[in-house]
Amino acid sequence: MKRKAWSRLPWQAAIWNRLRPDLGSNHHAFLLLGHEGIGKQALGRALASALLCMHPMEDASACGECESCEWLYAGNHPDFRWLTTPSRLQEMGAEDESAGSELEDSASEKRASEVIGIDSVRNLASFFSLTTHRGGARVLFIEPAEALNIAAANALLKTLEEPPAGSRFILVSSHARRLPATILSRCLSVNVPLPSIEDARQWLLDKGVSSPDSVLNQAAGRPLRALALADPTQQLARKEFMAQLSSLERDPYGLSEKVNRENVALWTEWMQCWCYDLLAKINHAPIRFNPEYEIKINALAHKVHLGKLLDWEKKLRIARYQSQQPVNPRLFCDDLLNAYCAVLQ
Ligand SMILES: [Zn+2]
Predict the structure, then answer these.
(1) pTM summary value
(2) Can you tell me the distance from the alpha carbon of 50 to that of 53, in angstroms, rounded to the nearest whole number?
């Protein structure tokens, strides 16, 4: 019989063993921290399963066979809630009960869709006031936790400080610095590590990725990010993008004609990786993200203006964050390419 439980990823056995003693302890709020694309959500979901399971296994993980595990797996456990942003809910195919009707334009709509607002927290009142099934645990899963706005975080604080009996909280965040200190101080922070290259490579091979090393380089060793990047359409788009970015003979501004809302964040990431590799070459360090372009990078490294390259690096760091917000993709990309051209003059 197939085990019906959310499982941790293969490389998370060590961190699971470190967390096990805390499952039955007084810690009622776990905050899982780490880079995007390393499996924090999977670990958090495995924790939630374990906390709700009626007959946990010897290693404290969920049995995958009890009524509770089946409900959770089917997405209808009465004592589990996933607090997330409207855009994430849409990806998951669920309706957002608190979606605002007062949105003025597409920019404010986009901003609102990336935020967990106070109404979503208020809607949890009945979840916390009802008795749990068979007096078991109740789990609130908050992901991405940094999406809580100030009002929502404040509203949540009271429940975090005085949780109803049996309540456990699992918060997941890739951006701990964006979390209010009041929330941070009430959670047990757990740094989720990157897997070893060997573990990540094997996992990608098992997922059917034929050239895991290349996508792992592009993703800085983050396996889930590497899996997303391994999509053939994505790889073709990257190849075209890098060909233009790495060639001085071509007009990099031509790239702006193809940028859109869907790819602007990814393109910014690719430019940032390119910038880091140029900096690495100048500092005689190994090229990390684009080793297949080493010859091009060597040639360009002799031509760059270091001060301008550092300016571009700083600009890209800010742009990486801004690219998640509503921007005019064409103007945004032109601005970054302009700074890149200055680096090469
Ligand atoms: Zn179970």
Answers:
(1) 0.84
(2) 5
Burial (Cβ within 10 Å: 0-12, 13-18, ≥19) of residue 260: exposed
Ligand 1 mean position to 14 CA, how many Å? Answer: 21
Q: What is the pLDDT of residues 227-274, one digit of tens each?
A: 999 999 989 999 989 988 888 655 666 778 888 888 899 999 999 999
Measured at the alpha carbon of residue 309, what is the angle toward residues 308 and 314, in degrees to the nearest 5? Answer: 95
Q: According to the model, what pLDDT value does residue 1 have? A: 54
Structure tokens at 340: 């890149």
How far are the Cα atoms of 85, 141, 143, 168 from residue 88, in angstroms, in the given order? 5, 13, 9, 22
Domain 10-191: give its CATH superfamily: P-loop containing nucleotide triphosphate hydrolases (3.40.50.300)
Is the pLDDT at 97 greater than 80? The verdict is no
Q: Does position 215 have pLDDT exceeding 90, yes or no?
A: yes
Residue 181: partners with Cβ closer than 8 Å, 6 or more residues away: none
Contact 152, 121 (CB under 8 A): yes
pLDDT of residue 260: 85
* Cα separation, 150 vs 179, whole angstroms: 9
Going from the Cα of 55 to the center of ligand 1, the distance in angstroms, rounded, reads: 5
| Residues facing residue 81 across a β-bridge | 140
Around ion ligand 1, residues with a beta carbon closer than 5 Å are 53, 62-63, 66, 69
Q: Where are the domains of the chain?
A: 10-191, 231-343
